[in-house]
Specification:
five-stranded mixed sheet; globular; 666 residues; alpha+beta; 34% strand; Rossmann fold; 36 strands; 17% helix
Amino acid sequence: MKRVLLGLALTTAGWSQPLMTPQLVAKLRAVSSVQVSGDGRSAIYTLSQPRLFEREDFEDGPAYSEVYRLSASGSQPLLTQRSGASWVGFTPDDRALTFLSKRSGDDHTCVYRLPLDGGEAQRILAFGSDVAGFAVSPQGNRIAFLANAPADPKREKMRKLGFTAQVFEEDWQFRKLYLAQQGSDKIKAEPVALEGSIGSVEWSPDGALLAVTSAPNPGVDADLMYRRIQLLDARTGKLLQTLKNPGKLGQFAFAPDGKHLALLTGEDLNDPDNGRLWLADTASGSMRDLWPNLDGRVSKVAWLSPSKLRALVWKGLVSEVWDVTTDGKRTLVVPAGEEVLTDLAVAETGRTLYVSESARHPGEVSEDGKLLTHLNPVLDKLRWAKQEAYTYKARDGQSIEGVLIHPLEETAGQRYPLILWVHGGPEGLIHNSWNNGYSQPGQVAAARGFASFYPNYRGSIGRSVAFSKLGQGDPAGREFEDLVDGVDALINQGLVDKAKVGVTGGSYGGYATAWCSTFFSDRFACGVMSVGISDKVSKSGTTDIPDEEFLVHARKHPWDNWNFFMERSPIHHVTKHHTPLLIMHGKDDPRVHPSQSLELYRYLKMLKQAPVRLVLYPGEGHGNRKAAARYDFQLRMMEWMEHYLKGSGGAAPNWDLPIPLDKPES
């Protein structure tokens, strides 16, 4: 059997322009967020810089987070790879940046200040444990910061002696809020008396109030489902109001006069998203929905004046920007276009910057419709397959949107193999923009003669709250019928070969892949499952988000109907399996325990009805973060698809995947 090394060739015979490859995907940089100073004169952006295999000093790990200053002459690095900076923002006077970092000589993560006019970063606050977040007062003289209590010396001594037993979900360290004077460096302080574990903090513009988020405990589940905003008297730390957001909590921001707080929240406790825009009165604590019945989700907001907000809104496959007044009047500012906006920042002057991506580039900084950065010039030279929005009707008449990427060299009347890519959640969302991550087939697959389809099946966010709830209480029901109906629409259109359809996805998309490879096995020629669910009973008992699983997904507990949970588990349908399945999972996944993959693998291996392989990634959790594991994942995914959808099929490819590292393409 001939082995295809997916990273080695950039060109196709007869064509001079390069094509997308896994090695190129692994090297691409992207802007993740943007900020602008209050006076509008300075702007910074955070860049995700992958670790590069060809560097002699390559050390495996997640992408580096770098901060650049944006100016008319280009971009200048401020905080680069080795800085380890996080929580970066402008000081109230716009003259410097503050950030978290652990530098040489530091025992813990500290707060630093970096002047924008030049000079070295200076430590301005250190504590007896890691500082996890902070905010500088508008007057610049005080810092509110978040940290765990310093370690108990007796407990530390016992730990060093080997007493390291963990008392599950009882020995949590609750993050507390502390207040300190600016420039006090190494401080000792008592926490503000607040219940719960504190997640974030923000000062009101006049410095009179503090808004902090708290959850009942430090667990992910509590943070997702029960996080609330507490308003404090900034002088005394006294609790004034607790804002009772009705659902999941997202971003929040004070109005310039401090009288209101804009917050993104779920419509109710069963809303899987936090995309509703609400307004809270900081004096009374009263709240109201500022945009009822929005057919979309608000992704980010910023205040333009005490009575007007600018809102980034995602509507299905596209984005829009709206101005919204505190009395609910709305004006469209940036209509939907080819660029999809993923972040925004607004200065007091009204200057607005965005993070923008499209089908042909990952995140870049943009302003007034123009890109201000150009991070990946290599993309200018590539040949691109056609990408388009694709809408179809499910069997019950429900309209479903998705993104279709055609084969690069498409010939009219010819049918092609298809890779169905299923997002997770199910409250995920695919835009008609950049869809070329390490786990996505995208343009890599298109260059090799595949079509790829990314459906926003029912349960996806970005439309109405009602649409995002359509799959609740019906796991693997109509939500996964939507997937098959999308494939059928492409077959009926004449694009796809019915006998050559593969499926892949992670998390809930991994659940879909397992379901399609068992219950719908007769429809799929191969599958690549990542961090997916195979047993709904044991998943409910091993996940770190049991309340979210109940409230916004299953809407019932296993003991309410054991048979239902089993019937909606792929392991219940393993005897139907004849779809070659590649299973990949992080060994340290707390969300979907790796036993979910092991259980499915073991049953399929015992049945011997089709090839199955399990790949585990040490040190990885719910999805791969490290450079080597991401690259390995994409190579294995594409090799599996090529082998079974275009190649000889039969026995699985050799397990020992050769990794081409010698001369990565530029």
